[in-house]
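Key idea: predict the complex, not the pieces.
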Amino acid sequence: MGMTMTQKILAKHSARESVEAGEFIEAALDGVLGNDITTPVAIDILEERGLGSIEAADKTILVMDHFVPNKDIRSAQNCQQVRSFARRHGIDKYYDVGDMGIEHCLLPEKGLVVSGDAVIGADSHTCTYGALGAFSTGVGSTDMAAAMATGKTWFHVPEAIRFELSGKLPKYVSGKDVILSIIGDIGVDGALYQSMEFGGEGMKSLSMADRFTIANMAIEAGAKNGIFEVDQAAMEYQEGRGKRTPEIFKADGDAVYARTIEIDLGEVEPVVAFPHLPSNIKRFGEFDKVAIDQVVIGSCTNGRLEDLRKAAGIMKGRKTAKGTRTIIIPGTQQIYLDALKEGIIEIFIEAGAVVSTPTCGPCLGGYMGILAKGERALSTTNRNFVGRMGHPESEVYLSSPEVAAASAVAGKISHPEEVAK
Amino acid sequence: MSRGKAHVYGKNVDTDVIIPARYLGATKAEELAAHCMEDIDSDFKNRVEKGDVIIAGFNFGCGSSREHAPMAIKASGVSCVVAASYARIFFRNSFNIGLPILICAEAAESAETGDFVSVDLAKGTIRNETKNETYQARPLPPFIMDMIKKGGLMAKIASEKEGGR
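Result:
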């Protein structure tokens, strides 16, 4: 029986000819990722059990990104614990203030993940690397601890939904609109335990940034992973970044899918996810005026250079609305620097936005933009659950960078066309 | 066998409401338990007693991978979660830290907060004593039961390493 992309990667990493959906396998891993929230728990777990040796030190990647530069004493102590753990075990892929970035922007940028890899991360958005044609999925701290100790983990082989893409995205429509529309259609558990496999002619029109955004939010449909076919653009993206060589896995012609969903990218519109679920999608024209207190542009979902460039394209020469606090967060130091050199940062500051160093900060209600009771934010992040960005009675709306930038200028949720006439 | 009061919730209960990120500076289970379910049920931490059962709808534990979520639930005294379905990371994390969870949509449909519920994990039976109804979930397989009894995946690995010596 034919295999999907995900199944082929899992077969390779479990040293088997083939695997089938539903099987349990043990797989060797190419990467084990943790951050400053999940790694301290994993370290405690290892140390409680007296498991002093880390077999996978060379595969372990630790990124301090959620609450750095540290927001309080607790977060400083958590980072200190991880820093000292990394030093003690000779983990050289440790990234802290100065060379860190938001983990899922950073790992592909540094070439630490390549096509064909099998990677787990103690962060739910680890599925982002599927944009490169890697199998990557989020786990908890115990799985991370066990994987650092052994270099392996077990998987339940998933069945897949195939997304057949055709057409080309219209102006002001991006990868964020594609994935939000999909989640709106299939629901927040529409791909539960499954892999979402993207391919087809339409893929060509998606930038790597669009693909990272789409794969990133596979978890928001409940999926185990999201994965794209590897094409020339994906290979070019990886050139000269890391030491490891990408390996391309193609789905068999007779691969079995739970279902196939066809998407004409030309039909996708800008959408907004209303509180309190990413599946609560509305198109422009389907809602009345929604005034916004805060706009956030950044995160592992939309903190890449292309995202910032699109937002700046709309904010250039304009001012953010009075009463709409606008926070821009480049995903990595490199993205920050590139944006600076391109003049993008200047555009934001002149528009009245603030620009932060890379951090997950406000996305999960950590710091750098917490909402008060009754406040409303439009954000390019990935979740709009109750209390996600602050007070349990605040609200988060999700959108693309272009819609967010237009809304920052208008002070209410706005279509880019309304602002960038 | 576990027995206690039911705390009933709807579908898509996410890990941000199980343990809000503002408390993620804490890494110890007891400290996390003091804020368990805070943003969806602010009185939960006062009402919950040892042995109680959380009953919920589809996609319980969706969102963030934070293991702090099942840790907080377990340390708050909850003996078992019964839900119509689970988000995959929460599902895995729960067994890994030794929190028993069962899948049963029927049990979630009729239960009300405050009902007395008893759960037999090995048999997969959920009895709502207040409503005098019994539901059947798929029982937990022996290797998962063994993991839960020992206190989770790492405890199991450690005990097997010792046993092998």
